[in-house]
C-alpha cells in the first residue's frame, strides 16, 4: 500500500542534483547545545523506530520557540496593523519579492544550522533534508512562506515553521530517523503575485509545464515573470523541478483551517480527507467606450454594467449549485469618471467538493454569461435587467487559467495523521475529519506521493486577511501532530523495509 | 442686454498681468504671407464692423488647413489605432503630461506667430489675444486640448483648432476687429487625469478655490498634483486664474455633439441652449477580505458583490428617473483571485437636464445604497438578492466630488450663434436647438460672461472613444459658425459702444 522505497538509481539522482549548497558530510547534530558533550565521540542516537508510544507522546515540540520564531520571521513582509500587540499585524509577503527572499534566506540558514542539506530547484522550491540511518527519499513536512497581499501570519507560514520546529525537536532529543526527513518551502503557493496557485508543487508533480510557470507574469501592471524574479532574488536553482529529481516518501502539511468549522464545533485537529476542486477563469467583457453625459442608456455597450450582472449572476448560480463563486480581481479600461467603460477583465474562482457539480456550474456559467452579455430574453437576464433599460450587447469570453480536481488523500497517510492526533494528550480526542475548502501544495504532492494534512482552528474562520489568527496552543498542537505523523510514517517505512528484507518485525 | 463694456480699470488689470511672454508692440499682421506687401506702410485694414452681411458670408475659414493642422497636432499624444488611414487613431493626451506640453507649446507658438499676445495663468489656462481697434476684454473662442485616456481627435481639440483657424482667417483677410478677439485653451477640462472636470475654467470663474484645484491628485496610483505637474511642464503662470484678472467679453465654444442626435436628424449645426446638470461621487464599499475557498457565501462581506449590486441599481434608478448614471472607474483591494475583496471604490456620475430630478435621484441613490449594503429586506434589495445567498453587511459611504448645475446659456449669445448658423449657405438651414449632455468649460465661462456653444455632428454619437469622428466638412461648418458668432458679437459690442458714446449708428 505504501510506496516508500525509491530505486537506488532515483536516490543517486537526488545526490547528483545537490548543487546549491555544498553537501556537508559532517556528522549530524553538531550544534552547540550543551547536552552534546561527546561531539567527536561516535555514539548511537535514539532511533525513531525504537521509540515507545509513550516516548513518542512525551517528545514534545517547543510551542514557545515555534511562536517566537514564527513572529520573528514575520518581520519579513509585515502587513497591515489590526491590533495593539506587537504581533497584531497581517502579512504582505508576495512570492519572490525582497521580503520573500529574506525569509527564504532565513529558512536556508536555519535548516542548515540544524545540519540539513538544502536544495533549490528550478522553481525556487527549497528542500531541507536531515539524514536518516538509511538513504532514501525523505518524508517531508511542507507548506509555503509566501502570503496574500493582505494576508495573515499563519496561512502557509505555520506549516513551514512547524516543520523547522520538528527538526529542532529531533535534534534536541538526539532522535535519528530511519530514513531522511525534510521540510519543503514551495514557491508562490498563493498564486497572488503569479496567477497560478500552487504552481511550483504543480511543476514538481509534472502537472504544470516548467516553461508555462517560468513565463507567468505578475498580476497588475508589472512585467516581471516568475523566472526573472527567481533570477533576481537568487533562487533560480538548476535542479530540475521534478518529483523524479527530488522524490518524496510522503508529504504532510500542517495548515490553519481558514474556515469556521473547528472553532464552531470546539474541535482542535482536523484530519483532512481531501480537497474541494476549483477552477479559475479570466472573464473578458468588451463593450464600447462612450461619453457618460451624451450617450443614453439604451445606446451604451457598458462593459462594467455587464460585468456587474455577470458577477452577481455567478454568485446566484453558485448558490443554486451549493458551490462557491468569487471575483477577487477586476480591472477596466479606459478608467475615467465620465467615460462608459469599453472593456472589463475579471477573475472568477468557482469551487465545489463534487467534481460533477463543479462541471455543471462551469457549463451553466458559460451559457448564462454569453446570454447576459448578448442581452437576450433568457432566464439569465430576468434578474439582471429587471426594471432597467437594456443597452447594446457586449462580447464576453471566458478563459480557464487553472483547475484543481476534487481530491481524496492517501488513506494510509490520513490514518497516520489520525493515529497521531488521537495519541496527543492535549488534543483530548477533539479530532474530526474534514474536507479542505482551499487548494494547498498537498494537492500536487498527492499526485506523486502519499499525502495528508492537519488542520488547526482559525479564529472566526478568517483567512486571507491581516486578522487571521490561531492561538499559540493550537499552533503547538498542530506542530505536535505534524511531527508525530512524520515519525509515524518513518516507523512504518522502516517496518515495511524490514518486512521487505525478510528480516521480520513485531 | 449685452454686458460688453469693461471699465478702463479692469482692462488695465489685463495689461498688468501680461507677464508670460513679452508683449510685442509691433503692428499686427506682420507675417510672411505675400499679400502683405506694404508691411511698413501704415494702412487701414478692413474693420469687422464695416463688413456687409455678404462680405461676412464670403469670408470663409480654410477647412483644409484646419483639418491639416488638427491632425498634425494630434501627433502629440496619439492614441489607439482603429482604422487604416494615417489619421485613424484616437488620442491619449491626458492633461499636463509631456504630450499636453507639446501641444501647448504649439498653441503658444502658432498664436504668437499670428501676432497674438499669450498669457498663462496659475491654472495653466492659455489666453491668446489678438488686438482690436479699441482696448477691452476680448471676445473668446475657447475649448481644451487635453483628452480622455482613450479619447478621440475632436472632443475639445476641434474647438481650439477652429479658434486658431479663425485667427488665421482674420489675418488672411486683413480684418481688424473693433475689440480684441482671442482663443483660450482651458486646462484639464476632461477631469480624466485630475478628477474634477472643467476645473480650470471653474477656478477662473471663482467657483472652485485655486488651492483645491492645485492640490488635486492624479487618479490611479500616482502622487502628482495639478500644481506639481503645471510646474514640471513649465505652465504654472503667475497671472491669477480669475475672471477679474482676465475678463472676457463673451465665450463661444465649438464642440462635437458627442451624441447621435444631429446625425440621426440630418442636421448640421446644434445651437446649444444649455447644459444638463451632473454630480460626481466616489463610493466606498467596505466588507472583509476572506479566503474564497473556505468562506461560505453566507459568511462573506464581499465588497465587490455589493458594489456590483450598487452599480446595477444606480442604472435602474437612473432609468426610472429619466436620467443617466455611469461608473467609469472601479478599484478594489486586496486584488487576488482567491480572496474575497475587502474594499471597493468606484466613481458614480449622474446627470439630468432637470435639477429637481437630479436631486431626487441623488437622494434615492443614497437611501438605496445604504439599504443594499446593509442587506435589508427593502425593495432596493429585491432585485439584488433574488435567488441568491445573502452575505454579511458591508459599509458604504458616498462622497460628492463635484457638481455642475443645470444651465441655460445667455440668450443674446445663443442668438448670435443662431443668426450666424442661418447665414452660412453650406449649412442650408439645417440648424436645431439642443441641450448639451456633457459639461464643458462654457458652463463656468457662462457664470462670468455671455456664453454659447456650437455643436457639429458626431458619427454614431460616439465620443470618449478613439473612433470619435466628425467629417472635415462638418468641422469646417462649425468653425465657420464659430468665427461668425465671434465677429457678430464684436459688431454688436461696437454698435452698443457707439450707441453708448451717443455717436449713433445705422
UniProtKB/TrEMBL annotation, chains A, B:
Domain (Peptidase M20 dimerisation) ranges: 274-374
Query: Under which name does UniProt file this protein?
Result: Peptidase M20 dimerisation domain-containing protein
Alphabetized NCBIfam families for the sequence: hydantase (TIGR01879)
Q: Which InterPro entries match?
A: Amidase_Cbmase, Bact_exopeptidase_dim_dom, Peptidase_M20, Peptidase_M20_dimer
- Keyword presence, Oxidoreductase: no
- List the keywords (alphabetical): Hydrolase
* Annotated family: Belongs to the peptidase M20A family.
Organism of origin: Phyllosticta citribraziliensis
Amino acid at each position: 500500500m505504501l510506496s516508500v522505497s525509491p530505486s537506488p538509481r532515483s536516490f543517486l539522482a537526488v545526490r547528483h542534483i545537490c548543487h546549491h549548497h555544498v553537501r556537508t558530510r559532517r556528522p549530524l547534530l553538531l550544534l552547540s547545545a550543551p547536552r552534546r558533550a561527546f561531539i567527536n565521540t561516535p555514539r548511537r542516537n535514539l532511533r525513531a523506530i525504537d521509540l515507545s508510544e509513550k516516548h513518542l507522546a512525551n517528545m514534545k515540540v517547543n510551542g514557545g520557540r515555534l511562536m517566537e520564531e514564527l513572529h520573528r520571521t514575520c518581520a519579513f513582509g509585515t502587513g497591515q496593523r489590526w491590533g495593539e500587540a506587537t504581533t497584531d499585524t497581517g502579512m504582505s509577503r508576495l512570492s519572490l519579492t525582497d521580503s520573500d527572499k529574506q525569509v527564504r534566506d532565513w529558512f536556508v540558514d536555519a535548516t542548515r544550522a540544524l545540519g540539513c542539506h538544502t536544495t533549490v530547484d528550478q522553481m525556487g522550491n527549497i528542500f531541507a533534508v536531515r539524514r536518516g540511518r538509511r538513504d532514501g527519499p525523505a518524508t517531508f513536512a511542507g507548506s509555503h512562506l509566501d502570503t496574500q497581499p493582505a494576508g495573515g501570519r499563519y496561512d502557509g507560514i505555520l506549516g513551514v515553521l512547524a516543520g523547522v520546529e520538528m527538526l529542532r525537536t529531533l535534534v534536541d532529543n538526539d532522535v535519528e530517523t530511519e530514513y531522511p526527513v525534510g521540510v519543503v518551502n514551495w514557491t508562490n503557493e498563493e498564486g497572488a503575485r503569479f496567477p497560478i496557485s500552487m504552481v511550483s508543487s504543480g511543476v514538481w508533480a509534472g502537472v504544470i509545464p516548467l516553461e508555462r510557470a517560468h513565463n507567468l507574469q505578475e498580476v497588475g501592471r508589472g512585467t516581471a515573470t516568475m523566472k526573472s524574479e527567481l533570477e533576481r532574488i537568487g533562487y533560480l536553482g538548476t535542479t530540475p523541478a521534478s518529483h523524479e529529481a527530488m522524490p518524496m516518501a510522503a508529504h504532510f502539511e500542517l495548515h490553519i483551517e481558514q474556515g469556521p468549522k473547528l472553532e464552531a464545533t470546539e474541535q482542535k485537529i482536523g484530519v483532512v480527507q481531501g480537497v474541494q476542486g476549483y477552477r479559475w477563469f479570466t472573464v473578458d467583457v468588451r463593450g464600447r467606450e462612450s461619453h457618460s453625459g451624451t450617450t443614453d442608456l439604451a445606446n451604451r455597450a457598458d462593459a462594467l454594467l455587464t460585468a456587474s450582472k455577470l458577477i452577481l449572476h455567478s454568485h446566484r448560480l453558485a448558490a443554486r449549485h451549493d458551490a462557491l463563486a468569487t471575483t477577487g480581481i477586476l480591472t477596466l479600461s479606459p478608467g475615467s469618471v465620465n467615460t462608459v467603460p469599453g472593456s472589463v477583465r475579471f477573475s472568477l474562482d468557482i469551487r465545489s467538493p463534487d467534481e460533477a457539480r463543479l462541471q455543471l456550474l462551469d457549463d451553466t456559467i458559460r451559457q448564462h454569461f454569453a446570454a447576459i452579455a448578448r442581452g437576450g430574453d433568457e432566464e439569465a437576464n430576468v434578474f439582471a435587467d429587471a426594471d432597467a433599460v437594456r443597452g447594446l450587447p457586449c462580447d464576453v469570453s471566458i478563459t480557464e487559467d487553472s483547475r484543481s480536481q476534487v481530491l481524496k488523500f492517501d488513506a494510509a497517510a490520513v490514518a497516520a495523521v489520525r493515529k497521531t492526533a488521537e495519541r496527543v494528550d492535549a488534543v483530548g480526542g477533539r479530532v474530526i475529519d474534514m474536507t479542505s475548502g482551499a487548494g494547498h501544495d498537498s494537492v500536487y504532492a498527492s499526485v506523486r506521493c502519499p499525502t495528508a494534512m492537519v488542520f488547526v482552528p482559525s479564529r472566526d474562520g478568517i483567512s486571507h486577511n491581516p486578522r487571521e489568527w490561531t492561538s499559540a496552543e493550537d499552533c503547538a498542537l498542530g506542530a505536535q501532530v505534524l511531527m508525530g505523523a512524520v515519525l509515524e510514517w518513518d516507523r512504518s517505512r522502516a517496518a515495511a523495509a524490514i518486512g521487505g528484507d525478510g528480516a521480520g518485525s513485531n
